[in-house]
């Protein structure tokens, strides 16, 4: 599995949703940006490191969940990774909506800010700036470039957060992405 394959999987899922929901020709970028911001907040909530008021600041890496029809199934769930992959789905969807080529999904390799709380804040800020041109219209500004720059900055922060701060390997992320993509397709089949 590689990033290009995940991008293609996201394009297929997005195309299915657009077709089945009758959204052809609708500008979905504002909704998708907001959805990504919500997922980033959910990721931060599962990470818990910013909750200075709580004695429970441990990330939800291994949470025991009980399920099944008779509540007899138990499994360990990495909720932080689940939320991270939800964010990745929306990042890839935004990339598709901005018509970014696959090579734009790769960003420079540097060490990011040491403070995870600051990373989350910078991430939310840059994601929000993807739509900032809607607030400040300037016909001379190269809007696609402006959006791409903020998208790529947010993506760099997102990757750094996952690899450097949360400790995920690309293999873990890819495996979780494929699993969640299958769930998302199943949800569409069952009237989600």
From TrEMBL:
Source species, domain of life: Bacteria
Transmembrane segments: none
Pfam families: dUTPase_2 (PF08761)
InterPro entries: dUTPase/dCTP_pyrophosphatase, UCP030140
Name of the protein: dUTP diphosphatase
Organism: Paenibacillus ehimensis
């Amino acid at each position: 599995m590689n990033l290009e394959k995940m991008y293609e999987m996201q394009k297929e899922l997005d195309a299915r949703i657009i077709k089945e929901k009758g959204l052809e020709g609708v500008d979905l970028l504002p909704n998708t940006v907001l959805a990504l911001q919500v997922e980033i907040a959910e990721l931060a909530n599962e990470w818990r490191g910013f909750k200075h008021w709580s004695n429970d600041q441990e990330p939800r890496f291994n949470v025991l969940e009980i399920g099944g029809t008779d509540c007899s199934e138990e499994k360990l769930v990495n909720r932080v990774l689940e939320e991270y992959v939800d964010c990745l789905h929306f990042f890839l969807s935004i990339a598709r909506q901005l018509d970014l080529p696959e090579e734009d999904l790769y960003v420079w390799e540097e060490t990011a800010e040491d403070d995870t709380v600051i990373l989350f804040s910078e991430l939310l800020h840059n994601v929000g700036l993807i739509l900032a041109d809607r607030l400040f219209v300037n016909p001379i500004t190269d809007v696609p470039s402006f959006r791409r720059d903020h998208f790529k900055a947010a993506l760099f922060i997102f990757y750094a957060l996952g690899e450097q701060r949360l400790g995920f390997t690309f293999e873990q992320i890819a495996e979780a992405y494929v699993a969640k993509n299958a769930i998302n397709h199943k949800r569409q089949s069952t009237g989600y």
